Amino acid sequence: MSVIQLAGIERVFHLGDSVVHALSRLDVAIDAGEYVAIMGPSGSGKSTLLNLLGLLDRPDAGSYRLEGRDVTTLSPDEQAAVRSRRIGFVFQSFHLVPRLTAAENVALPMMLAGIPVAERAQRVAQALKDFGLDQRADHRPDQLSGGQRQRVAIARATIMQPAVLLADEPTGNLDRATGDDVIHLLEALNERGMTLIIVTHDPKIGTRARRQLMMEDGELRQDSASTRLRQLDDNPPGPLSGKGGDGESPAAPAPDKPSAGAA
Amino acid sequence: MRNADVLRFARDAAAGYPLRTSLSVLAMAIGVAAVVVLTALGDGARRYVVEQFSSLGSNLVIVLPGRSATGGFSPANAMTTTPRDLTVDDAAALSRLPSVRRVAPLTAGTSEINANGRLRETLVAGTASTYLDIRGFKMAQGSFLPEADWNRGAPVAVIGAKIQEEIFAGKPAVGELIRLGDRRLRIVGVLKSTGQGLGMNTDELVFVPVGIAQGMFNTNTLFRVLIEAKSRDQIEAVKREVAAILKARHGGEEDITVITQDAVLATFDKLLRALTAAVAGIAAISLAVAGILVMNVMLVAVTQRTSEIGLLKALGARGDTIRDAFMAEAAMLSLVGALTGYGLGLFGAFVLRQMYPVFPAYPPNWAVVAALVTALSTGLLFGIMPARRAARMDPVQALMKH
């Protein structure tokens, strides 16, 4: 069963006189427990897609079904409730609240959801232990290393046991070794059944995923899950690397061999 | 989000920016302290005046010549025209009323006192033996004016404490002869010092029998007639009867004014309450300014914490949860500011009382309540706009700011 089902999604931004199609004609289905990387150059619409999947943004057309429920028609408060319980976010810049300790940051989603203090404390303690942070519970973000901060952020994203974990460049602010740790952590969560969607520039990370979605100009250019390559013939792969922020161009697309480029 | 969590979150947020928080708390505190201290001053002035009036004597009814339309106390009463004199015989007639305990005529003028080789200008009050009890004065030496026919009067005088000190330099004055204007009088008593009184300072007065004073100043009319009613309940009856008798004696014309100490007190009381309220109103402006400062601080807080607001939304916070959190923060700034200001204000009033012990500078309860309520409500009112701005923020835009 598909945990995420997008049909005919359109997202249009009006910048002055010009109209930008951030997403157009997007049809994607993602099954529960999948490990998906959304890849593509800057401005390709992958962040817009992630925001949309996280219910932070609404499509201008099309429907989005999360766990079988149409969530595009929900009120903002209902969407907030869905975000609270079914979606976890991991950000590039961690987004920890600087004045709160690691434990308090992890407890934040439960506090917002109104979970009683005693249950919060117990679940936070367990989560910190699981993520190897039990010695850092009372440290504030500025007293933590980058890798520890991202682990706190992941603990926070998963504390409500969401259906989908959305990670936006989770290793973008980390060095390679710590980044690898974080990726392994996310993959471990995926192995335990959590649907994992990572947005990344980095082909090394992208190709670790079992499925890659290649975005360009707001369209899905390539989905490694489908054998059909849409419109690839009139757009050669070269431009994909054109505006890639991190410089490293993705290896020539190897759509049918998912982990070919991984180290 | 639970209410306790909203409060804790807001508290931590305020504590996270100590300088900004303490500045806005200080602004609010100064506003509240200003209200508390200024109303303590105003109300202290009122209490002071009331106390001074009470020292005039109890159950006092005052008759003055001339008609004033209101019958209350106003500056115009002091300058009424006098169609017909208020005479010693009028006063004597009033003393026969059943509800009246004592009557003292009073006439006044200035003259020179000359004794012991010294000379000074002084206020002379012509009155009768009853005056002492009506005003509740005490004698330091000797006795007050003797009981006598009001129209004649013996050549005696009673002097105030300051006159005694200045003329006789502390030596016993009773029995000494003085020259007062063109009269030679013998001092029979010295009044105990009463301190500062309203209008007339009795320490600097020379009392002589009313007949003598009228002769000295060549007048038949009385400046005032002081009447002491038998009890507080009979003040109104005295007022009515005095008016009726004097109307009859003055050929049917109402040409006198009867005022009671209560009426005078009530007027001063009203006046000074209005003054206190006005001062409180001026001080309240600083509360409004403090409210605007709280708004400013909250707007800065919303801008500074934009990415945090985006994060909270991503983590499932609803718009009204975020609004509540920011409102709670604004309310806390106001509350802490108001309480600090209350403490500062009480301390200020305490310092005032230490510096001027006669001045009862206590802030009135209504002013304290009004200041605290105004502080809280302006804080909340001015907190609404920033809080709503935070609640409406687009999460995608908010998360991008870092």
Keywords, separated by commas or semicolons:
heterodimer, A: 263 residues, alpha/beta, four-stranded antiparallel sheet, disordered C terminus, B: alpha+beta
Description:
The complex is a heterodimer of chains A (263) and B (402). Chain A contains 7 helices and 10 strands. Chain A is of the alpha/beta class and 263 residues long. Chain A has a single domain (2-241), classed as P-loop containing nucleotide triphosphate hydrolases (Rossmann fold). Chain A has a 6-stranded mixed sheet with strand order 6-7-8-3-9-10, with helices on both faces. Chain A has a 4-stranded antiparallel sheet with strand order 2-1-4-5, covered by helices on one side. In chain A, strand 4 (61-66) and strand 5 (69-70) form a beta hairpin. The model of chain A is unreliable at 227-263 (pLDDT under 50). In chain B, strand 2 (100-115) and strand 3 form a beta hairpin. Chain B is elongated and about 100 Å long. Chain B has a 6-stranded mixed β-barrel with strand order 2-3-8-5-7-6. With 402 residues, chain B is α+β, with helices and mostly antiparallel strands. The longest helix of chain B has 44 residues, at 261-304. The interface between A and B is medium-sized, with 29 and 26 residues.
Number of beta strands of chain B: 10
Described by the principal axes of the CA atoms, the overall outline of chain A is globular
Low confidence ranges of chain B: none
Distance between the termini of chain B: 25 Å
State the assembly state of the protein chains: heterodimer
Secondary structure class of chain A reads alpha/beta
